[in-house]
C-alpha cells in the first residue's frame, strides 16, 4: 500500500514554480510538530472526557488523522487553530480509504485497543521510503496480552483487558514506542519499554497523556515505565515545535547564503543539525527559543550518518544532501534508519548535482552548479529537499506533485516568500 497524497483542498498533481538564486533573509516561525501532533491526536482517543489540542498546524497529515478519528465515531470541532475532541469510539474498523493515506494511521491501534478491546486496520505496506514493517508494534501489543491475527490484509487486535509487561524493542522504533505507551496507559499494572525511542515527540506524547492523569515516567530515556490507570480525564494541551520544519529552514538559509532567524524552536532538539551546519561552514547561533543561521563562505564537505535521536535525523537527510551538492569537496552520507530513502537523488542529479548511491550510502561529489528544471516530489522530505534545490538553482524550476510537501509543512510557500523566495503554487 503506497501512501496516496492529496493536499488539504483534496487536490493532487499540484506544482510549485520556483525562481532560483534568491537569498533568504529575515525571520520565520515554526509550527507545532507534525510527529508530535499525530500521536497526540491518536492518544486523545484514550480519554473519556473532552480534550482540546491547541496550536494545531494546518497540514494534510493532521486533516487525515482528524478525519480518521471522526470516522470511528469521535466528534471534533475546530476553534481557530485548536481542536476540541469528544465522544466514544463507535467503530473498530476505520475506513481503508483514510488509513491508506498516511502511515501514521497505524498509531490509532494502541488507543483503540486499550479503550475498545478490539481494533481492525489495514496493514501498512511498502511506501516511498522503504518497507517500514510494524512487527515491533504488534509484538508489544501481544506482550500486553492482546490476541493478534491477520484477515484479508488487515491486522485484528483483541483483548478483554491489557496487562502490564516488560517489552524489549529490538530497535528503538518511534511509532512502536508510541503505540505501546498508548496501549499500556490504560492497562492493568505496570509496563516497562526497554530500548525505547528517545525522540522529543515521545516525551511530548507522554506529557500529554500525563496531563490527562496518565502515569508515565522515563520518556526521553531508553526505559519508559507506564503504570496503567483506569481512566484518563479531560485536558488542554499545546504540542512542541517542529524540529524538522525548523531544520529545513535552517538548511534553506545556509543553502541560499542567506541570513535567517528561525523562531519558536527548542535548540536542544536541533543539536545534530546545528553541528553539521557549523562543520559545513555556516554560522549558527542559538538563543532561548530561536536559532540564527547564516553563511558567508563556501560550503565545506561533511560526513553524516542518520541515526535515531539524538543522532542526525533521517527526516533531514534529503535536505542536507541537497545542500552538500554545492560543497567544495565530497561528502558521504550514510542512511541507517530507512533502507531506501533516496528517491530525491535522481531528481537532484537532473538539476546538475553529482550524487550517487551505493547501498545505504550517498556519495555527494560537490561543487555542483544547480540548474532549474522540472522535478517530481516523491515524498514529504524529498519534496522539501527539491524546494531547497530550486531555491539554490539558476533559473526556473517546477516541482510536480508538490502536495507531498503540504503533508508536513504549514504555509511553506507563504513563509518562504516572506523570506525573499519567489515561489508560486499552481
Ligand atoms: C517516525 C516518524 C518519521 C521518521 C521516523 C524515524 C512519525 C509520524 N513519523 O516514523 O517521520 O522518519 O520516525 O525517525 O512520527 N521498524 C521495524 N519494525 C517496526 C517498526 C519500525 O522494523 O515495527 C523499522 C522501520 O522499518 C525503520 C526503523 O524501524 O527502518 C525506524 O522506524 P520508526 O522509528 O518506527 O519510524 P516511524 O514511527 O514509522
What would you say this structure looks like, in words?
By secondary structure, the chain is an alpha+beta fold. The protein folds into 2 domains: 15-31 and 241-425, Enolpyruvate transferase domain (UDP-n-acetylglucosamine1-carboxyvinyl-transferase, Chain, Alpha-beta prism); 34-237, UDP-n-acetylglucosamine1-carboxyvinyl-transferase, Chain (Alpha-beta prism), CATH 3.65.10.10. Helix content is 30%, strand content 23%. It contains 14 helices and 23 strands. The strands form 6 sheets. It has a 4-stranded mixed sheet with strand order 21-22-1-23. Strands 2-14-16-15 form a 4-stranded mixed sheet. A hairpin with a 3-residue loop joins strand 15 and strand 16 (290-294). The longest helix has 13 residues, at 243-255. The mean pLDDT is 94. The structure holds uridine-diphosphate-N-acetylglucosamine. Uridine-diphosphate-N-acetylglucosamine (UD1) is lined by residues 35, 38, 104, 130, 132-137, 171, 173-176, 314-315, 337-338.
What is the fold's blueprint, element by element?
Elements lengths: L14 E5 L5 E5 L4 H10 L7 E3 L6 H12 L3 E5 L2 E5 L9 H4 L9 H8 L1 E5 L12 H9 L3 E5 L2 E5 L7 E3 L5 H12 L4 E5 L5 H12 L3 E3 L5 E5 L7 E3 L5 H13 L3 E5 L7 H9 L3 E4 L3 E5 L8 E4 L10 H8 L6 E5 L7 H8 L4 E4 L2 E4 L9 E3 L3 H13 L3 E5 L2 H4 L5 H7 L3 E4 L1
Parallel strand pairs: 2-14, 3-13, 9-10, 17-18, 21-22
Antiparallel strand pairs: 1-22, 1-23, 3-5, 4-5, 6-8, 7-8, 10-12, 11-12, 14-16, 15-16, 18-20, 19-20
Helix pairs in contact: 1-2, 1-7, 4-6, 5-6, 6-7, 8-10, 8-12, 10-12, 11-12
Bound molecules: uridine-diphosphate-N-acetylglucosamine.
Amino acid at each position: 500500500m503506497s501512501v496516496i497524497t492529496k493536499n488539504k483542498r483534496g487536490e493532487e498533481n499540484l506544482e510549485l514554480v520556483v525562481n532560483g538564486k534568491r537569498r533568504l533573509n529575515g525571520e520565520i516561525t515554526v509550527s507545532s510538530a507534525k510527529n508530535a501532533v499525530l500521536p497526540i491526536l491518536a492518544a486523545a482517543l484514550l480519554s473519556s472526557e473532552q480534550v482540546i489540542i491547541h496550536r494545531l498546524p494546518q497540514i494534510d497529515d493532521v486533516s487525515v488523522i482528524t478525519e480518521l478519528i471522526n470516522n470511528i465515531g469521535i466528534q471534533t470541532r475546530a476553534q481557530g487553530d485548536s481542536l476540541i475532541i469528544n465522544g466514544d469510539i463507535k467503530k473498530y474498523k476505520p475506513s481503508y480509504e483514510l488509513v491508506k493515506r498516511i502511515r501514521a494511521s497505524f498509531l490509532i491501534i494502541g488507543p483503540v485497543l486499550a479503550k475498545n478491546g478490539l481494533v481492525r486496520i489495514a496493514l501498512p505496506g511498502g511506501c516511498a521510503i522503504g518497507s517500514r514493517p510494524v512487527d515491533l508494534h504488534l509484538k508489544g501489543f501481544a506482550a500486553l496480552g492482546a490476541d493478534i491475527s491477520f484477515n484479508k490484509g488487515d491486522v485484528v487486535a483483541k483483548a478483554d483487558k491489557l496487562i502490564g509487561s516488560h517489552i524489549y524493542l529490538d530497535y528503538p522504533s518511534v511509532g512502536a514506542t508510541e503505540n505501546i505507551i498508548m496501549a499500556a496507559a490504560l492497562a492493568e499494572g505496570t509496563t516497562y519499554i526497554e530500548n525505547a525511542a528517545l525522540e522529543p515527540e515521545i516525551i511530548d506524547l507522554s506529557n500529554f497523556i500525563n496531563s490527562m492523569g496518565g502515569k508515565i515516567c522515563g520518556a526521553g530515556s531508553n526505559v519508559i515505565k507506564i503504570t496503567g490507570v483506569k481512566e484518563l480525564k479531560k485536558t488542554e494541551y499545546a504540542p512542541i515545535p517542529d524540529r524538522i520544519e525548523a531544520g529545513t529552514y535552517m538548511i534553506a538559509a545556509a543553502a541560499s547564503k542567506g541570513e535567517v532567524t528561525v523562531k519558536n524552536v527548542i535548540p536542544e532538539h536541533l543539536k545534530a543539525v546545528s553541528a553539521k551546519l557549523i562543520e559545513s561552514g555556516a554560522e549558527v547561533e542559538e538563543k532561548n527559543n530561536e536559532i540564527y543561521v547564516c553563511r558567508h563562505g563556501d560550503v565545506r564537505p561533511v560526513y553524516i550518518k542518520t541515526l535515531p535521536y539524538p543522532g542526525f535525523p533521517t527526516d533531514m537527510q534529503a535536505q542536507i544532501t541537497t545542500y552538500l551538492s554545492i560543497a567544495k569537496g565530497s561528502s558521504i552520507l550514510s542512511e541507517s534508519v530507512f533502507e531506501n530513502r533516496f528517491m530525491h537523488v535522481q531528481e537532484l542529479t537532473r538539476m546538475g548535482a553529482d550524487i550517487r548511491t551505493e547501498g545505504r550510502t550517498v556519495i555527494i561529489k560537490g561543487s555542483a552548479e544547480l540548474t532549474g528544471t522540472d522535478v517530481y516530489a516523491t515524498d514529504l522530505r524529498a519534496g522539501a529537499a527539491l524546494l531547497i534545490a530550486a531555491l539554490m538553482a539558476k533559473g526556473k524550476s517546477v516541482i510536480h506533485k508538490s502536495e507531498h510537501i503540504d503533508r508536513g509543512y504549514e504555509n511553506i510557500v507563504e513563509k518562504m516568500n516572506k523570506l525573499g523566495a519567489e515561489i508560486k503554487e499552481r
